[in-house]
Write a structure and sequence with these properties.
Strand order of the largest sheet: 3-2-4-1-5-6-7
Structural class: alpha/beta
Number of strands: 7
Number of helices: 6
CATH superfamily: Reverse transcriptase/Diguanylate cyclase domain
Helix content: 40-55%
CATH architecture: 2-Layer Sandwich
Strand content: 15-25%
CATH topology: Alpha-Beta Plaits
Radius of gyration: 16 Å
Shape: globular
Length: 192
């Protein structure tokens, strides 16, 4: 499970307006879903009701189509559910980051100006019988560490959840590539 936070999304709402922000989120969601593999689903945090204190839930709409919903009016956090391990999550995030130019072109079409694409992410492996509340808390903690002001780091995960990696294996190459990609210039992939 990945909890993805789009960087500087609040600037779109402030500078352009919430309608443009809504359109940006819709098109971001559509582009991510169109490029997803069959074992990847995109969800949006959404409250179960307007009552205070109730837990959030993951919301999926329709049989095949996944839509994005805001947690609140300024929400920019997406859950991405993958079948697999932390390594699969790192591969997904690497593919997403490599699409940076595509998302920046999208911002020009919607906003009339380039909005830099970037994100912070928390990444966890969900236990077989783990509750949503537990998984949400753990992935939110990882995202919180990635968002710390004094940290240029962008992705956090727990090393105890990483499968054993053999030297020269595809999994090892994926982890090495993700670590390198997220260390270059804008942050680093770091474990907690």
């Amino acid at each position: 499970m990945i909890l993805l936070d789009l960087q500087n999304f609040g600037e779109i709402n402030k500078k352009y307006n919430h309608w443009k922000g809504d359109e940006y989120l819709r098109q971001f969601s559509d582009k991510v879903m169109m490029a997803s593999r069959r074992n990847e689903s995109l969800f949006k945090k959404r409250p179960t009701s307007t009552s205070a204190g109730e837990p959030d839930e993951l919301t999926r709409v329709g049989e095949e189509n996944v839509k994005a919903f805001r947690k609140n009016s300024g929400g920019d956090e997406f859950f991405v559910l993958l079948e697999g391990t932390i390594v699969d999550g790192l591969g997904y995030l690497s593919r997403l980051q490599r699409r940076e130019g595509e998302f920046e072109k999208m911002s020009i079409q919607i906003l009339g100006a380039k909005h830099p694409f970037g994100f912070h992410a928390g990444l966890i492996a969900i236990g077989k019988d783990e509750s949503y509340e537990s998984a949400n808390k753990r992935v939110s903690e990882c995202l919180g560490l990635a968002l710390e002001r004094d940290s240029p780091l962008r992705i956090y995960w727990n090393p105890r959840e990483m499968p054993e990696l053999k030297a020269g294996s595809l999994q090892k190459r994926i982890v090495d590539e993700a670590s390198q990609l997220f260390r270059s210039g804008r942050g680093a992939a770091v474990t907690v």
